[in-house]
Amino acid sequence: MKISKESLRGQTRLAEERSVAERGGVPEPVRIVMQRSGFKELNPLQRLALEEGVLGERNMVICSATASGKTAVAEMAFLKSLIERGRRVVYIVPLRALAAEKYDEFRRKYEPLGYRVTVQSGDRDLSKSPLSLRYDILVTTSERCDSILRSRPMWFEDVGIVVVDEVHLLDSEDRGPTLEMVITKFRKMNPDTRILALSATIGNPEELAAWLDASLVISDWRPVKLTQGIYRNRRLRFIEEEGERIEEVQGTAASPAVRLVEDVVRRRKQGLIFASSRRAAERLAEDAAEAVEPYLTEDERVRLGDLSEKILSVVDYPTEQCRRLARVVRRGVAFHHAGETSEQKRLIEDHFRSGLIKVVCATPTLVYGVNLPAMRVVIRDLKRFSGFYSEYIPVLEYRQMCGRAGRPQYDDHGEAVSIAKSKAEEQVIEERYIRGSIEDITSKMALEPVLRMHILGLIASDFVRKWEQILDVVLSTFYGHQYGSSSQLEGKIEAVIRDLIEYGFVELRDGSYLPTPIGRRVSELYIDPDTGYRLCNALLERRRRKKRASALALLLMICYTVEMRPLLRLGNNWGEMEEKLEELGKESLVSPPKEWGYEYEEFLRALRTSLMFEAWINEAGEDRIMKEFGVPPGGLRAKLETADWLLYAASEISRLLRAGARAELEKLRVRVRYGVRGDVLPIVSIPQVGRVRGRALVRAGYRSLGDIR
Ligand SMILES: Nc1ncnc2c1ncn2[C@@H]1O[C@H](COP(=O)(O)OP(=O)(O)OP(=O)(O)O)[C@@H](O)[C@H]1O
Ligand SMILES: [Mg+2]
Q1: Ligand nearest to the CA of 44
Q2: pLDDT band at residue 152 under the 50/70/90 scheme
Q3: Per the count of CB atoms within 10 A, which of 22, 122, 279, 544 is most buried?
Q4: How far from 709 is each of 224, 676, 686, 703, CA to CA, in Å?
Q5: Ligand 1 nearest-atom number relative to CA 73
Q6: Of all helices (H) and strands (E), which one includes residue 706?
Q7: Distance, CA 166 to ligand 2 centroid (Å)?
Q8: What is the atom index within ligand 1 of the atom nearest the CA of 41?
Q9: Residue having the nearest C-alpha atom to atom 4 of ligand 1
Q10: Site residues for ligand 1, CB cut-off 6 Å
Q11: How many domains does the chain have?
């Protein structure tokens, strides 16, 4: 079914010939997408997808170039399901930035037609309110979707189509298994739910299509020409099908990456630099700010000044990182990485799109699917440090980064330039990345912790009961398709079930595996079974003592879990942590591991992490947290979210075990949420009163809501 370039060109012509006026016979969903998106005509990929039956019943895998308009194809398919059958839509994406983009886009286009769109992109959501039935389209991540699936809400009973955007995520070790489990569950729950999988970068789309029993559409057509090049020794060499071309780079910056973007800003275009670490992204942004500033207009300077203030005001106590960000933004540049808060990232994305920010230096937070106005993308590092040494990144990722350049809405051509540090590297870039082929994707399902999490999920949500059913679901995943049944796999599943029985989460009764109440709750809470077991043990210890646990003991309990990873590093604090551990002594609800080996270090790191939380609830500012613990505001927010969720999980488990710790856990949870001591709690419950104002009010003598009224 592979389509040659020749036939695609033919189809392009055909598409051009069919004028806009002839659209009478166009199916309703297609007409709506075109009208709501303002497209004059369908592009060749979209025509091809229609010819191959995207409005039909079968599952479909679309593997086509970046920027080829796959989203619109998905929109046609989901509108069909909505219009003709009134069945709901799930749209799964890998990144928050992408979820936000798709949510905004679908809402803008389809809410005026009466379809309601919602987004749920955090990994978990503690609100117990079920997904409201009034929504028609859910944009979500695979983790969040799996978490919602576990409570088997009514909403999911009538899903007509699941769009899996950036389906190559299946290959990811930590996120792929959840995605395949989600797809498998949808298919098992309702065999006529359609699956539409999209990607630009899969080496083995045939295999994926075979798994999904889907028709396959492959195309390398791209609406905007994308040229790949290599920069070395001040020489920019573009490698194209027709041959090579050397282009001059004009710029004064010392750093090659910065010079490459300066060269486009000079021509009133925008640039995006990908770096391999947060620090590198920040440093590049500082250099870029220097180079970009002279090209700003007076009006832009004023608006950037305002934006810069806004970015600072997002946190109570700006850290050095926030100030650095504000400084570069003032000069038309930003960095974008996981250390920033989501509000900050959102502001940067919006203002890069509006053209006010000229250059963004990003880590891979922006690598998949997003539409940004970068005429030139610079890939500074093709190697990434992974544990002990640096490795070349997969071709898949390289192509995705390139794909952010030259998006049709913004540019009429795009350039992706990698920087080579040596002649040998130049050769690798050309052969492996520019001319080489993309890797095959493989399932990462067979790791035991992964299986444990998902098998508990299956049993706890009454998805399966019998051994054969469990095996059937595992074999229906992409893993099962790729590797089939084996005694090794069965042995692993058996071992996992044994663990779950030992944890007290599953029981075997009359040949059926049934969840215990606590096993069910652990699964719904979407915590790792191992974490569930650890929390149970600590809380049973609390019950035995019949004495309130200290905040630090509770914090340590939630920090010594896989969810809290990566834990803070020890650096040269090893000795200090051992002292703290001694101080904590019997107060701890978790007994420390033996003093050798990996687990002990992990425990000390958990302790250091809990000390950071303790500082936070004792009202340390973001700046101090950064200085003392090396955690930037975005990192802190992410950890606080995890803590909130684990405290809630612990409180739920405490309820089931009658451990008596609910009150102290709930109080701690509110303190963690607001970052305050106990005396400010009555005041921070007032909307708009944060930790800083709350403390000021208490200092001024207000102790409760009544005092203020
Ligand atoms: N028929 C069309 N006419 C004009 N513009 C279009 C058409 N179809 C899609 N586009 C525009 O092309 C841009 C890229 O589309 P989209 O984001 O769907 O690409 P994609 O194939 O998903 O790429 P990626 O693999 O990078 O995610 C969007 O701005 C979209 O509005
Ligand atoms: Mg896309």
Answers
A1: 1
A2: confident
A3: 122
A4: 61, 21, 11, 11
A5: 18
A6: helix 705-708
A7: 7
A8: 1
A9: 39
A10: 37, 39, 42-43, 46, 66-72, 200, 369, 371, 403, 407-409
A11: 5
Domain of 614 in residue numbering reads as 529-675
Residues 6+ apart with CB under 8 A from 247: 229, 236, 238
How close is the Cα of 72 to the center of ligand 1, in Å?
7
Domain boundary at 524, 546, 568, which?
A: 524
443 inside domain: no
Q: Best substitution site from 366, 371, 402 to test ligand 1's pocket, by max atoms within 8 Å of Cβ?
A: 371
Any bridge partners for residue 244, and if so which?
A: 239
- Ligand 1 centroid distance, CA of 57 (Å): 23
Domain shared by 195 and 245, yes or no? no
Residue nearest to atom 7 of ligand 1 (CA): 69
CB atoms within 10 A of CB 630: 12
Q: Which atom of ligand 1 is nearest to the CA of 409?
A: 29
CB-based contacts of 525, cutoff 8 Å, min separation 6: 532, 645, 648, 649, 652
Residues 136 and 73 both lie in one domain: yes
Quote the CA–CA distance of 194 and 216 in Å, as a whole number.
14
Q: Ligand 2 being an ion, which residues bring their Cβ within 5 A of it? A: 369
- Atom index in ligand 1 nearest the CA of residue 410 equals 29
Q: What is the mean pLDDT of residues 32-37?
A: 97
pLDDT digits (tens, 9 = 90+) for 44-84: 999 999 999 999 999 999 999 999 999 999 999 999 999 99
Secondary structure of 168-208 in the HEC alphabet? HHHHCCCCHHHHHHHHHHHHHHCCCCEEEEEECCCCCHHHH
Identify the helix (H) or strand (E) that includes residue 512: strand 512-515
Going from the Cα of 113 to the center of ligand 2, the distance in angstroms, rounded, reads 23
d(CA 53, CA 605): 54
Poorest-pLDDT segment among 218-222, 298-302, 487-491, 537-541: 487-491
**CATH number of 643's domain:** 1.10.3380.30
Tell me, yes or no, whether 362 and 493 share the same domain. no
pLDDT tens digit string along 163-204? Answer: 999 999 999 988 999 999 999 999 999 999 999 999 999 999
